[in-house]
Amino acid sequence: MEIDRKATGGRLKKLLQERDMKAADLKRLLGLENHQPVYKWLNGKSLPSLEHLCRIAEILETSVEDILVYRKESARKEE
To answer: HSE (CB half, 13 Å, CA atoms) of 50?
Structure first.
């Protein structure tokens, strides 16, 4: 099983929107110096570290499992 970065970024965007939060809010709450990592996560270019992922889940009052989107085996084989 593989994590779908793009779909995970989309889910993270949706969770932020549902809580009226922006990338800048997440950056600040995570104590990051710049926005670049957050935008990479939201655009599916990379995934947060496990530490950041756990913290994001805590901030958004959800679980890591609710943030991550997994790619199905059949979808991966088609690529």
So the answer is: 0
CA triplet 20, 42, 56: central angle to 5 degrees? 65
CA terminus-to-terminus distance, the chain: 14
**The tokens 């779908």 sit on which residue?**
4
Q: Tell me the H-state helices in 1-79.
A: 5-18, 23-30, 36-42, 50-59, 64-67, 73-78
The model's pTM is: 0.86
pLDDT one-digit tens code per residue, 11-28? 999 999 999 999 999 999
Nearest 5°: CA angle at 65, between 32 and 17? 55
CB-CB contact of 42 with 9 (8 Å): yes
